[in-house]
Specification:
This protein is α/β, with parallel strands linked by helices. The chain has 2 domains: 79 residues, no CATH class; 217 residues, Rossmann fold, CATH 3.40.50.150. Helix content is 41%, strand content 16%. The chain has 15 helices and 9 strands. The strands form 2 sheets. Strands 5-4-3-6-7-9-8 form a 7-stranded mixed sheet, sandwiched between helices. It has a two-stranded antiparallel ribbon with strand order 1-2. It starts with 12 loop residues before the first helix and ends with a helix. The chain binds S-adenosylmethionine. S-adenosylmethionine (SAM) binds next to helix 8 and strand 4.
Length: 315
Amino acid sequence: MSSYCIPPQVTSLREVILWAEALFKKNNLYFGHGTDNALDEAAYLISYCAEKPVDFTDDDLLDVLTASQRKKVEEVLYQRITNKVPVAYITGKAYFFGLEFNVNQNVLIPRSPIAELVGEQFSPWFDYTGWLNNNKNRALSILDMCSGSGCIAIACATVFENAEVDAVDISEQALKVANININKHHLANRVKVVQSDMFTDLPQKKYDIIVSNPPYVTQSEIDSLPDEYHSEPELGLYAANNGLQFAIIILQQAFYYLADNGIVVVEVGNSAQALQALFPEIPFTWLEFEMGGDGVFVLDAAQIRQYHAQFLKAI
Ligand SMILES: C[S@@+](CC[C@H](N)C(=O)[O-])C[C@H]1O[C@@H](n2cnc3c(N)ncnc32)[C@H](O)[C@@H]1O
């Protein structure tokens, strides 16, 4: 029996949402995995329990929850409040780039600011029109390194209709989720998963765009994260070397895997300063996002070639 019993006088959808909102506020939850406030989170969770779309009509809000829906709300609140499980893992769904993705605790909850860049077809850093003019007979080739749920790979395949995307991850469990999402979005003909420890088992091939949201969180940062993050797989968060372990591998290997006019886009989050300090002379382009987020850089193929020797010197 959960410790969150809905009081008998709280009956309508509206009342249950407001009651849950108050409970969330009282219990000091962290919001950052899909919603950013207690009311939206409560509305989303209660809509899931009541099997209603979250954009309730006024009439919906007057609906009285059934006994089984009330029980479900109480169970879900226990998960969310006592176990601090993020909503996306409770519902099994997350939204990224306006698309719905299946998620479970084997994948990070999609939230990379790279979505915004994908929406702009990586413009102005990648000249897609120029690329199309020069490449009439081949598919645009994209690598999503550290693909997790496949969210970035799938978003890329959605905006570039002729793209073929390799979605690489070391985790078999994560790739199972990626495959579910690839099928869900009918992209099995253009998005392929590859199980590989970074580039180790990735066949030699040139990509026009290498994009990655790799693990980049240091141990001390992980230790200080709100409880909600500890539901996520540590494999998706932790990186040694001041958070740069995987970013450095990408910078080193891009020399071999990037096409002549390609670009590399990598998210390193709060490890951006450590990266810039490690390579003080390299002019990383740090992106700004209208919808928030930072710590994402772009380098082009000429820069990848020019600084290759320096990247190799980093551990
Ligand atoms: C930060 S998550 C990103 C997932 C997804 N791209 C996103 O934006 O939500 C990083 C991913 O890297 C994967 N990973 C960790 N170590 C790896 C390695 N050595 N080689 C390939 N992938 C790795 C994890 O399994 C995890 O799915």
